UniProtKB/TrEMBL annotation:
SUPFAM superfamilies: Adenine nucleotide alpha hydrolases-like (SSF52402), THUMP domain-like (SSF143437)
Protein name (Swiss-Prot/TrEMBL): Thiamine biosynthesis protein (ThiI)
Pfam family, one: THUMP
InterPro entries, sorted: Rossmann-like_a/b/a_fold, ThiI_AANH, ThiI_fer, THUMP_dom, THUMP_ThiI, tRNA_sulfurtransferase_ThiI
């Protein structure tokens, strides 16, 4: 593999000017992720609703980039000249490799093709048929468009074809750094999850912890190290203070002003939304000159547990 095809979703719904700005930040975050993880690359290009990362470490890069917010899916791919002969050969090679890895005698497969630009004279449907026929001529297999074991994907753009058999799910959301900064009251798993969900919406977080014991502080440091695996593009580092609990919000506001943050994030959760809870939140916000956000407050427990498990928090 010599490339990674990166797809994004929500960014594509923005105006052209806004989309270009979001793309630039996403490319910078991708670059930071690769550099920080020691993965070499030749070029990163954003065109036609795709970002192409040219690298000889495509599988390793895909694993890292799946943690970059704003990315919906990725595919380690082979980039070749967009001619039917070369597409056929690479598609067959990747099909065989996947067939071996799955230990299948007669796999069911399908070919999906998309011409993002139209240099290739074949239509997408014609290309799918031609590549499928070529695979059937050289391998024991059968076409099944619904219940397939292997999907050979082809995307054609600017004279190049990107061929792959894997599509890795990303987190989606917005690129980190596009939605300002907040201070997160980081104290345990719930507040870490709240920070994660804010990061997923493009917000850079400054983690703030009020130290009560060395053991608790070490647990928070572990949580922050886990969160930093998703913080490509962010510059925040854990800030620790030894102040009375009743001074926590006051100190967080000072920190927010120092960093230019626009709010404070709490990990507060509630099994049930009640009038008493609403009154408590109103009172809490009335005492704070900045808005306090509660990302977990009304989300289903099953959803939060799913996110926590997948994110490793």
């Amino acid at each position: 593999m010599n490339a990674v095809v990166v797809r994004y979703g929500e960014i594509g719904t923005k105006s052209r000017q806004t989309r270009s700005w979001f793309e630039r930040i996403l490319v910078n975050n991708i670059r930071e992720a690769l550099i920080s993880e020691g993965i070499g690359y030749k070029e990163i290009v954003a065109r036609h609703g795709r970002i192409i990362v040219k690298t000889n470490e495509a599988e390793k890069a895909t694993e890292v980039l799946a943690r970059v917010f704003g990315i919906v899916s990725l595919s380690p791919a082979m980039e070749v000249e967009a001619s039917l002969e070369k597409i056929n050969k690479i598609a067959l090679r990747l099909f065989r490799r996947t067939k071996r890895s799955l230990s299948l005698e007669r796999p069911r497969f399908r070919v999906t093709a998309r011409r993002i630009t139209k240099e290739l004279p074949l239509t997408s449907v014609e290309l799918q048929a031609k590549v499928g026929e070529y695979i059937l001529e050289h391998e024991e297999a059968e076409v099944d468009l619904r219940n397939y074991d292997i999907e050979v994907g082809i995307e054609v753009m600017e004279g190049k074809a990107y061929i792959f058999t894997e599509k890795v799910k990303g987190w989606g959301g917005l690129p980190l750094g596009t939605q300002g900064k907040v201070v997160v009251l980081l104290s345990g798993p719930n507040s870490a999850l709240a920070a994660f969900l804010m990061m997923k919406r493009g917000v850079e977080v400054i983690p703030f912890h009020v130290k009560e014991s060395e053991e608790e502080l070490e647990n928070v440091r572990v949580l922050w190290r886990k969160l930093k695996r998703y913080a490509y593009g962010g510059k925040g580092e854990l800030v620790v203070a030894e102040v009375p609990k009743e001074k926590m919000i006051e100190k967080a506001v000072e920190l927010a002003k120092d960093f230019g943050a626009k709010g404070i994030v709490s990990g507060r959760r509630a099994e049930k939304l009640t009038e008493a809870l609403g009154d408590a939140l109103i009172e809490e916000n009335a005492k704070c000159p900045l808005p306090i956000y509660y990302p977990l407050i009304a989300l289903p427990k099953e959803y939060l547990e799913g996110v926590r498990k997948r994110a490793g928090l």
